[in-house]
Amino acid sequence: MKKTFFTVFIIMIFSINVHSQSDDVLLFRPLTANTFEPRIGAHYNYCDENLRLDIGASFDLLKYEYDKSALAFGTDFFTYTRLRSDNNFKFPVETSDYFFGVNSSYEHEIGDDLIEARFRLAHISSHLVDGYTKFGTFIKEPFVYSREFVDLYVVYETHFTSWFSIRPYAGLTLVFSTIPDNVNQILPQIGIESEAKLTDNIKFHFAFDVKDGENRVGYISQTGVDFQFNKKFGVRLFYKYYNGNSMHGMFFDEKDIYNAVGFNVIYF
Length: 268
What we know:
Elements: H1 2-20, E1 40-45, E2 50-66, E3 69-84, E4 93-110, E5 113-128, E6 133-134, E7 137-138, E8 145-159, E9 164-179, E10 186-197, E11 202-212, E12 217-228, E13 233-245, E14 255-267
Antiparallel strand pairs: 1-2, 1-14, 2-3, 3-4, 4-5, 5-8, 6-7, 8-9, 9-10, 10-11, 11-12, 12-13, 13-14
Protein backbone atom coordinates (compact mmCIF):
# COMPACT_ATOMS: atom_id res chain seq x y z
CA MET A 1 0.00 0.00 0.00
CA LYS A 2 2.93 2.36 0.73
CA LYS A 3 4.26 1.72 -2.80
CA THR A 4 0.82 2.56 -4.22
CA PHE A 5 0.68 5.90 -2.42
CA PHE A 6 4.26 6.71 -3.42
CA THR A 7 3.38 6.02 -7.06
CA VAL A 8 0.24 8.20 -6.81
CA PHE A 9 2.32 11.00 -5.27
CA ILE A 10 4.89 10.88 -8.10
CA ILE A 11 2.13 10.96 -10.74
CA MET A 12 0.47 13.98 -9.07
CA ILE A 13 3.78 15.89 -8.87
CA PHE A 14 4.54 15.07 -12.51
CA SER A 15 1.10 16.29 -13.56
CA ILE A 16 1.59 19.55 -11.66
CA ASN A 17 4.95 20.11 -13.37
CA VAL A 18 3.51 19.43 -16.81
CA HIS A 19 0.78 22.02 -16.29
CA SER A 20 2.97 24.64 -14.69
CA GLN A 21 5.38 24.56 -17.63
CA SER A 22 2.60 25.37 -20.09
CA ASP A 23 1.83 28.96 -21.06
CA ASP A 24 -1.81 28.17 -21.85
CA VAL A 25 -4.78 27.23 -19.72
CA LEU A 26 -7.71 25.21 -21.00
CA LEU A 27 -9.98 27.17 -23.31
CA PHE A 28 -13.03 25.55 -21.67
CA ARG A 29 -12.73 25.80 -17.89
CA PRO A 30 -13.83 22.49 -16.26
CA LEU A 31 -17.26 22.52 -14.59
CA THR A 32 -16.91 22.39 -10.82
CA ALA A 33 -19.90 20.17 -9.93
CA ASN A 34 -19.93 18.02 -13.07
CA THR A 35 -18.90 14.44 -12.27
CA PHE A 36 -16.52 13.67 -15.12
CA GLU A 37 -14.03 16.52 -15.28
CA PRO A 38 -10.21 16.66 -15.07
CA ARG A 39 -9.14 16.79 -11.43
CA ILE A 40 -6.11 16.18 -9.26
CA GLY A 41 -7.02 15.77 -5.62
CA ALA A 42 -9.15 13.82 -3.19
CA HIS A 43 -12.19 14.07 -0.97
CA TYR A 44 -13.25 12.19 2.12
CA ASN A 45 -16.80 10.86 2.32
CA TYR A 46 -17.36 10.95 6.07
CA CYS A 47 -20.83 9.37 5.81
CA ASP A 48 -19.47 6.05 4.50
CA GLU A 49 -15.86 6.52 5.63
CA ASN A 50 -14.27 6.15 2.23
CA LEU A 51 -11.94 8.27 0.15
CA ARG A 52 -12.10 9.26 -3.52
CA LEU A 53 -8.82 9.90 -5.29
CA ASP A 54 -8.85 11.78 -8.62
CA ILE A 55 -5.85 11.79 -10.96
CA GLY A 56 -6.14 13.24 -14.43
CA ALA A 57 -5.92 16.19 -16.74
CA SER A 58 -7.12 17.68 -20.01
CA PHE A 59 -4.78 19.32 -22.49
CA ASP A 60 -5.45 21.68 -25.38
CA LEU A 61 -3.11 20.38 -28.08
CA LEU A 62 -4.09 22.84 -30.82
CA LYS A 63 -5.57 26.30 -30.42
CA TYR A 64 -6.72 28.86 -32.97
CA GLU A 65 -7.68 32.45 -32.15
CA TYR A 66 -9.47 34.88 -34.44
CA ASP A 67 -11.14 38.20 -33.68
CA LYS A 68 -13.16 37.62 -30.47
CA SER A 69 -13.35 33.83 -30.82
CA ALA A 70 -11.09 30.85 -30.15
CA LEU A 71 -11.18 27.15 -31.04
CA ALA A 72 -9.17 24.35 -29.43
CA PHE A 73 -8.69 20.59 -29.84
CA GLY A 74 -7.41 18.44 -27.01
CA THR A 75 -7.41 15.18 -25.10
CA ASP A 76 -8.60 13.86 -21.71
CA PHE A 77 -7.17 11.17 -19.40
CA PHE A 78 -8.67 10.66 -15.90
CA THR A 79 -8.98 8.01 -13.19
CA TYR A 80 -11.55 8.07 -10.37
CA THR A 81 -10.73 5.68 -7.54
CA ARG A 82 -12.67 4.75 -4.40
CA LEU A 83 -10.67 3.70 -1.35
CA ARG A 84 -12.04 2.32 1.91
CA SER A 85 -10.86 3.88 5.17
CA ASP A 86 -9.37 1.13 7.33
CA ASN A 87 -7.39 0.82 10.55
CA ASN A 88 -3.78 2.03 10.90
CA PHE A 89 -4.16 4.63 8.14
CA LYS A 90 -4.79 2.00 5.47
CA PHE A 91 -6.91 2.70 2.37
CA PRO A 92 -7.64 -0.49 0.40
CA VAL A 93 -8.58 0.29 -3.21
CA GLU A 94 -12.14 -0.90 -3.89
CA THR A 95 -12.90 0.26 -7.43
CA SER A 96 -11.39 2.45 -10.12
CA ASP A 97 -12.85 4.05 -13.25
CA TYR A 98 -10.82 5.01 -16.32
CA PHE A 99 -11.85 7.86 -18.63
CA PHE A 100 -10.09 8.88 -21.84
CA GLY A 101 -11.08 10.66 -25.02
CA VAL A 102 -10.71 13.67 -27.28
CA ASN A 103 -12.40 17.05 -27.13
CA SER A 104 -13.03 20.27 -28.99
CA SER A 105 -13.86 23.57 -27.28
CA TYR A 106 -15.02 26.99 -28.44
CA GLU A 107 -15.14 30.45 -26.88
CA HIS A 108 -16.62 33.74 -28.06
CA GLU A 109 -16.47 37.09 -26.29
CA ILE A 110 -19.58 39.29 -26.00
CA GLY A 111 -18.45 42.43 -24.23
CA ASP A 112 -17.28 41.28 -20.80
CA ASP A 113 -19.20 38.00 -21.10
CA LEU A 114 -18.31 34.67 -22.72
CA ILE A 115 -20.15 31.96 -24.61
CA GLU A 116 -18.32 28.66 -24.21
CA ALA A 117 -18.91 25.17 -25.59
CA ARG A 118 -17.15 21.80 -25.33
CA PHE A 119 -17.72 18.59 -27.29
CA ARG A 120 -16.15 15.30 -26.17
CA LEU A 121 -15.90 11.77 -27.59
CA ALA A 122 -14.88 9.47 -24.76
CA HIS A 123 -14.64 5.98 -23.30
CA ILE A 124 -15.06 4.99 -19.67
CA SER A 125 -14.59 1.62 -18.00
CA SER A 126 -14.81 0.46 -14.41
CA HIS A 127 -13.07 -2.28 -12.40
CA LEU A 128 -13.20 -3.83 -8.94
CA VAL A 129 -9.81 -3.94 -7.23
CA ASP A 130 -8.25 -6.10 -4.50
CA GLY A 131 -9.60 -3.88 -1.71
CA TYR A 132 -13.14 -5.05 -2.47
CA THR A 133 -12.49 -8.64 -1.38
CA LYS A 134 -13.05 -10.62 1.79
CA PHE A 135 -10.97 -13.75 2.42
CA GLY A 136 -9.85 -13.65 -1.21
CA THR A 137 -13.37 -13.43 -2.67
CA PHE A 138 -14.98 -10.34 -4.18
CA ILE A 139 -17.77 -9.00 -1.95
CA LYS A 140 -19.67 -8.22 -5.14
CA GLU A 141 -19.23 -10.19 -8.36
CA PRO A 142 -17.27 -8.08 -10.91
CA PHE A 143 -18.65 -7.60 -14.41
CA VAL A 144 -17.69 -5.80 -17.61
CA TYR A 145 -18.62 -2.11 -17.52
CA SER A 146 -17.74 -0.09 -20.60
CA ARG A 147 -19.23 3.00 -22.24
CA GLU A 148 -18.51 5.00 -25.35
CA PHE A 149 -20.32 8.32 -25.55
CA VAL A 150 -20.34 11.91 -26.73
CA ASP A 151 -21.26 14.89 -24.61
CA LEU A 152 -21.83 18.57 -25.33
CA TYR A 153 -21.87 21.46 -22.86
CA VAL A 154 -22.81 25.08 -23.56
CA VAL A 155 -21.97 27.79 -21.00
CA TYR A 156 -22.76 31.48 -20.70
CA GLU A 157 -20.33 33.24 -18.37
CA THR A 158 -21.40 36.69 -17.23
CA HIS A 159 -19.63 39.16 -14.93
CA PHE A 160 -21.89 41.32 -12.78
CA THR A 161 -18.94 43.17 -11.25
CA SER A 162 -15.16 42.93 -11.37
CA TRP A 163 -15.30 40.49 -8.45
CA PHE A 164 -18.46 38.39 -9.04
CA SER A 165 -19.40 36.10 -11.96
CA ILE A 166 -21.78 33.22 -12.72
CA ARG A 167 -21.70 30.41 -15.32
CA PRO A 168 -25.06 28.76 -16.05
CA TYR A 169 -24.79 25.78 -18.40
CA ALA A 170 -26.68 22.99 -20.11
CA GLY A 171 -25.35 19.64 -21.26
CA LEU A 172 -26.37 16.45 -23.01
CA THR A 173 -24.69 13.03 -23.00
CA LEU A 174 -25.45 10.42 -25.69
CA VAL A 175 -24.26 6.86 -24.97
CA PHE A 176 -23.88 4.97 -28.27
CA SER A 177 -22.13 1.80 -27.08
CA THR A 178 -22.40 0.22 -23.64
CA ILE A 179 -21.91 -2.92 -21.58
CA PRO A 180 -24.22 -3.68 -19.83
CA ASP A 181 -26.96 -2.42 -22.11
CA ASN A 182 -29.62 -1.67 -19.45
CA VAL A 183 -28.50 1.94 -18.98
CA ASN A 184 -29.95 5.29 -20.01
CA GLN A 185 -28.52 6.40 -23.32
CA ILE A 186 -29.69 10.02 -23.25
CA LEU A 187 -28.69 12.03 -20.18
CA PRO A 188 -29.72 15.73 -20.04
CA GLN A 189 -28.05 18.04 -17.54
CA ILE A 190 -28.17 21.62 -16.24
CA GLY A 191 -26.10 23.51 -13.71
CA ILE A 192 -24.73 26.79 -12.48
CA GLU A 193 -21.54 27.92 -10.79
CA SER A 194 -20.38 31.24 -9.38
CA GLU A 195 -17.20 32.87 -8.14
CA ALA A 196 -16.69 35.80 -5.76
CA LYS A 197 -13.23 37.32 -5.55
CA LEU A 198 -12.42 38.07 -1.91
CA THR A 199 -8.82 39.24 -2.47
CA ASP A 200 -6.31 39.05 -5.32
CA ASN A 201 -5.39 35.53 -4.18
CA ILE A 202 -8.58 34.17 -2.60
CA LYS A 203 -11.89 33.31 -4.27
CA PHE A 204 -15.11 31.80 -2.96
CA HIS A 205 -16.89 29.34 -5.26
CA PHE A 206 -20.31 27.67 -5.36
CA ALA A 207 -21.64 25.14 -7.89
CA PHE A 208 -24.82 23.11 -8.35
CA ASP A 209 -25.48 20.41 -10.95
CA VAL A 210 -28.59 18.38 -11.85
CA LYS A 211 -28.32 15.36 -14.17
CA ASP A 212 -30.59 12.51 -15.20
CA GLY A 213 -29.14 9.20 -14.00
CA GLU A 214 -29.73 5.49 -14.50
CA ASN A 215 -32.94 5.35 -12.47
CA ARG A 216 -33.10 8.70 -10.65
CA VAL A 217 -32.18 12.35 -11.02
CA GLY A 218 -28.83 13.21 -9.41
CA TYR A 219 -27.87 16.38 -7.54
CA ILE A 220 -24.39 17.64 -6.71
CA SER A 221 -23.55 20.85 -4.87
CA GLN A 222 -20.13 22.13 -3.92
CA THR A 223 -18.85 25.20 -2.11
CA GLY A 224 -15.41 26.23 -0.97
CA VAL A 225 -12.44 28.56 -1.18
CA ASP A 226 -9.67 28.80 -3.81
CA PHE A 227 -6.18 29.94 -2.79
CA GLN A 228 -3.97 31.15 -5.63
CA PHE A 229 -0.26 30.80 -4.86
CA ASN A 230 1.14 32.20 -8.12
CA LYS A 231 -0.04 33.06 -11.64
CA LYS A 232 -0.75 29.44 -12.58
CA PHE A 233 -1.15 27.31 -9.47
CA GLY A 234 -3.49 27.08 -6.50
CA VAL A 235 -5.41 24.80 -4.14
CA ARG A 236 -9.18 24.47 -3.75
CA LEU A 237 -10.69 23.42 -0.41
CA PHE A 238 -14.34 22.41 -0.57
CA TYR A 239 -17.42 20.79 0.92
CA LYS A 240 -19.51 18.56 -1.40
CA TYR A 241 -23.00 17.06 -1.20
CA TYR A 242 -23.75 14.15 -3.56
CA ASN A 243 -27.18 12.56 -4.14
CA GLY A 244 -27.75 10.22 -7.10
CA ASN A 245 -26.48 7.10 -8.79
CA SER A 246 -22.94 6.08 -7.94
CA MET A 247 -20.39 7.60 -10.31
CA HIS A 248 -18.45 4.33 -10.26
CA GLY A 249 -19.46 1.92 -13.01
CA MET A 250 -19.32 -1.17 -10.80
CA PHE A 251 -22.15 0.40 -8.75
CA PHE A 252 -23.88 2.35 -11.54
CA ASP A 253 -27.44 1.32 -10.53
CA GLU A 254 -26.94 1.91 -6.79
CA LYS A 255 -27.89 5.10 -4.95
CA ASP A 256 -25.16 7.22 -3.37
CA ILE A 257 -25.91 9.95 -0.81
CA TYR A 258 -23.05 11.49 1.11
CA ASN A 259 -21.28 14.60 2.40
CA ALA A 260 -17.59 15.07 1.79
CA VAL A 261 -14.70 17.47 2.31
CA GLY A 262 -11.69 17.63 0.06
CA PHE A 263 -9.09 19.48 -1.98
CA ASN A 264 -8.09 19.91 -5.62
CA VAL A 265 -5.01 21.25 -7.32
CA ILE A 266 -6.26 24.01 -9.65
CA TYR A 267 -4.77 26.04 -12.51
CA PHE A 268 -5.46 29.60 -13.60
